[in-house]
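QUALITY CONTROL LOG
STEP: pairwise intake check
CHECKER ROLE: data steward
CRITERIA: each record must contain a sequence immediately followed by its structure tokens, with no blank fields

ENTRY 1 OF 2
RESULT FIELD BELOW
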Amino acid sequence: MKIFPYNEKSEIELKSSKLMELNFYQSNDPITMDSIDMDLSLGASYLLKKEENKLQFDLSVALRLHQNIDVDKITDIGIIQSKISGIFIYNGKLDEKVFPNLASILYSYLRPIVAQISVMAKLPPIDLPIVNLSKIKVDKIKDK
């Protein structure tokens, strides 16, 4: 998958992606199948291998699934934790301004996986919401 140049002297390409972690814990059955609410948290990190012009970019997504039947009562249904990793090849100087775009690419790969897992658990399909990742905090992975 080729991405158009993000500046005059660089381009970046996704070479591979891999689902590194996918955990689903169901604590309760849904009260109704009409609507399931979710709390979403995101995290990102990267490891740069300059000598190979490679970048490993990881995106972690955690969902807390619940239902609000009464104003005072929230029923927890479960959690989904996932981590997807992408290996990107770049030419030229890598600018960290591209990181939100990389997170968006990996997020789009994760959306159908989460929906499929929820259906396999006999829940309605959980559609990850479309999110603006322009301000996502990206941590640098420490070299070992």
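ENTRY 2 OF 2
RESULT FIELD BELOW
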Amino acid sequence: MKRIISAFLTTVLAASALAAFEWGGLADNTTSYANNSALTQQNAVYLWGSIPLSEDGTSYIKAEGMYRFSYNSKAGAVTNLIDLDLLKYANSIKMGNNTLNISAGRFQVSDLSGAIFAQTSDGAYVNYVTPSYNLSAYAGFTGLLNSNAVTMIGDSGVDPEKVYSLADKYIPVSAAVSLPSLFLNQTLSLQAYGIFDCENSEKTNRMYATAALTGPLAAKVFYNALSTFGTNFDDFMNYTNISVSVFTGPAYITAGCEFASENYIGFTAHPACSTAMGDIETTGIIVPSISSNIAIKNDMMLAATMKGIFSSKSTESTKGLQAEVNYIYNILSDVQISAGIKGFKSFDVSDLDKVTATLKLALSF
């Protein structure tokens, strides 16, 4: 009798979960052409699914997988990529005026600066939110990721012969505290990040510490200031980013400046000039910038960015201007087209000059 009841309950729970199952997808086509005669073609399909585990939706399981075809005419390279970039269990638990958020599985992780560890990773994240402070911690493992879909220091990189190749084994861990409305609605955040090599290669071990201060300066004017200090246990490094944003009706404008010390290397992300121009150094530079996003209509947006790039190294001459303009148009609720152009003009080395035009079409279903 117990077995019959157990089987019945299992069937009911499975049926209710399937009834609440939600899914969707996205197909996109991206074509880029650079003035160095390189044509890049990408076609991708993304599928996602979600199963709520509670009536209010605060507990759920969500997954996303993708396939991407890429072709580069200059290199003559064709790559096929299959990846499971999301498989997450999440739960949000109310505890009086406080909330405990838990996530486990594979999901996107980013540090405070976005210049240390910013990519998909397998692991667990805990966040405890109160009216006066927030505490969070993360621990992960990279050895089961697809190395063709992520970028890490010392990683073996893309293997065009394989659609899924295991990445190198690292353990990222972090702990953070945030004090919202510490004074005059200003928020102070502190974070420590450690990345350790499971292959016992001490040269890739890293430790970082970040402090960030954000808040309003006036009505519709906000600032963000952060600085990261790191060490590979041989040298010290620094990355600093300061910006001010102004919201004016349908547009907002951001002006800022980034600095990356000569030996600064984020573990998964380059700081400052990290766009797809490819041949520009991303360490030992000072990068002032200004950008703007303008909502032309409810279904149209224009975004523009201008960066100046100046070397902080006495022996280097990496100097230039980088500009990018993108236009996005939502033709229908599930069809979007975008066009963009970006370029770099070197003050010293004309071979570094580059212009790339991109056209993208995306269809959601």
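INTAKE CHECK: passed for both entries
DESCRIPTIVE NOTE, ENTRY 2: Residues 7-13, 272-276 have pLDDT under 50 and may be disordered.
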